[in-house]
Structures are given as C-alpha cells and as structure tokens.
Recover the amino acids of this structure.
C-alpha cells in the first residue's frame, strides 16, 4: 500500500493516525519542503510505478486545488487511485497558526469550496460524500474496496485543530495542547 499526502494538518494527521506499522506500507509526502499539490501527482506516479499496489491519496481542500486537473490523468490512464479529501474549508494549518499568534485568520479560514464529489463525477470518477461519524462506518470501507478510482469527500469540522503542535521557539517536549478557538 502506498499513501500520499498534500501539505497541512491532514499531512500530519495521516502519519499520526494511519497504521504504517505493517510491512509494505509506504508514505510519500513532501515533508518539510511543504509542497502543496504533491498529493495527486505523487499518487499517479506511485500507481504507474507499482500498478499492483493499493494507492490512497489523503489531501486537504487547499492542496487538492493546486493540481486538481490531474483527475483527468487518472481517467486517461485508468488508474485505480483512492482519493480522500479532508475538507475543512480552510488552509487550516496556516489558519491555526494565525489564530494562535494573532487571534484571527483573515485570508486562510472560512473558504468557499466547491462540491469535490460533484467535480470528481464531472471528470468521470466515482465519488462519495462523508458528513458524519455514521457515514465513516457505512461508506468508507465499501468506497475503498470498490474497483477503480474514487474520490471520498470527507467534511471535517473546521474547528478541529492539529494538536499537539510545535510552536516557534519551543522544544518537542513542550508542544502546545491549546485549542486556537
Ligand atoms: C504551493 C504552496 N503554497 C502555499 C503553501 C503554504 N501552506 C502550507 S500548508 C497550507 C495550507 C494547506 O491547506 P490544505 O491543503 O487545505 O490542508 P489542511 O491544512 O487544511 O489540512 C499553506 C497555504 C505551501 N506549503 N505550498
């Protein structure tokens, strides 16, 4: 299994919560380079290089929109890639940082987003929307098992902070657990 990410809160949630302690699971992420838009092209490259592998791309709503046109490549090349969009209507790792430091997020929070499931369908990619905890239990496993590419549009609470978080000037044993809201 190969997992790719964009950059932001979701990039940190994936290694914190996805189980990589299993043989033959690989995480492809741009790490400290912080390349939003790495997500989808990395998944495409991974699937072409290892067609037998399950490839899952976890991506934020902001990162996805850097290279969203690559959905066409997935269709053209008939690539079985699972795309999990964690949509919290924010460039949230930056928004959280701004709230923590300046109490507001003038340009990075409360973003208008399109219906990503509808966009996937328009490209000819299957899609499912997840809006509740019950949806996760009912829809996630079938979507991942389904053959062919699928976009799973997960609506995430915009007030879900990335915690604990390492703030500037602090050490790893002194991470912040304080909500920015
Ligand atoms: C090309 C690019 N532009 C801007 C940034 C700065 N930046 C880092 S994370 C981030 C927000 C990412 O938002 P999203 O993909 O929605 O992820 P989230 O933090 O919400 O999980 C931004 C703007 C970047 N790393 N790369």
């Amino acid at each position: 299994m190969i997992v790719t990410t964009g950059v932001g809160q979701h990039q940190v949630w994936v290694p914190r919560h996805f189980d990589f302690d299993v043989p033959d699971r690989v995480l492809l992420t741009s790490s400290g380079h912080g390349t939003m838009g790495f997500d989808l092209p990395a998944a495409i490259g991974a699937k072409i290089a290892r067609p037998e592998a399950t490839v899952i791309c976890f991506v934020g709503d902001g990162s996805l929109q850097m290279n969203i046109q690559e959905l066409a490549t997935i269709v053209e090349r008939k690539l079985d890639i699972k795309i999990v969009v964690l949509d919290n209507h924010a460039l949230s790792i930056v928004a959280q940082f701004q709230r923590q430091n300046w109490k507001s997020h003038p340009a990075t929070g409360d973003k208008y987003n399109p219906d990503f499931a509808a966009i996937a369908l328009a490209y000819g990619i299957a899609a499912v929307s997840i809006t509740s905890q019950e949806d996760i239990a009912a829809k996630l496993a079938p979507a991942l098992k389904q053959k062919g590419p699928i976009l799973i549009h997960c609506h995430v609470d915009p007030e879900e902070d990335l915690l604990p978080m390492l703030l500037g000037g602090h050490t790893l044993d002194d991470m912040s657990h304080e909500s920015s809201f």
User: Anything to note?
Assistant: The longest strand covers residues 81-87. DSSP finds seven helices and six strands in the chain. The radius of gyration is 16 Å. Helices lie at 9-17, 39-49, 61-64, 71-76, 92-102, 116-123, 133-145.
